[in-house]
Design goal:
187 residues; globular; mainly alpha
């Protein structure tokens, strides 16, 4: 059953909304861990689904996949945690320790080439404006398309493209010419 049908069914049977949590919570949790660290991830994901449940009557039922909508809610909540996010990137820049990589030690060996750039990448992410960082990370870590990112953030697709272009340019510069997509996807 498509997400939109689950949300619509939940209007009459609220317990049905739990199906969305089962489908999407793990993906959103990983995204939040990368943005804010593991300490805040559970709270942000819980708040995301609480807000989504409260706003489900406003959902655009012509959109079968609710993940972009949930990413949008998550990104707005992360915005309220922006200072913590920037502090986390600065700490990552100092220590070079990615909380996701630490949580998945068995994947560390595959990421050796990215680790050399991890600190510089974190510093570059901390310097990006919120809009640029949100677009870059929704596409790189959230694996959203440009269209889905535009939906998630409630902005035109042209804004997504321009923010992504600026973010990539800034990150490439900070990494001394390295491709930010390779580094971001590896971390």
């Amino acid at each position: 059953m498509e997400d939109s049908a689950v949300i619509e069914a939940s209007l009459g049977e609220p317990e049905r909304f739990a199906e969305l949590f089962d489908r999407h919570a793990a993906v959103l949790h990983r995204y939040v861990v990368r943005r804010l660290g593991p300490d805040q991830a559970e709270d942000v994901v819980a708040e995301t689904f609480t807000r989504a449940f409260e706003q489900r009557h406003k959902y655009a039922f012509d959109r079968s996949d609710a993940l972009p909508w949930l990413y949008g809610i998550t990104t707005n909540i992360i915005g309220s945690h922006r200072r913590a996010e920037v502090r986390g990137y600065r700490a990552l820049a100092r220590t070079g320790e990615d909380p996701v990589a630490v949580a998945f030690d068995e994947q560390v060996a595959a990421r050796v080439s990215a680790s050399a750039n991890r600190g510089r990448l974190a510093a570059a992410l901390a310097k990006l404006g919120r809009g640029e960082r949100d677009v870059l990370l929704l596409i790189a870590w959230g694996d959203l398309s440009y269209e889905e990112t535009a939906q998630a953030l409630g902005v035109p697709i042209g804004t997504v493209r321009s923010r992504l272009s600026r973010a990539r340019r800034k990150v490439v510069h900070a990494l001394g010419g390295s491709n930010p997509t390779d580094v971001i996807e590896e971390t």
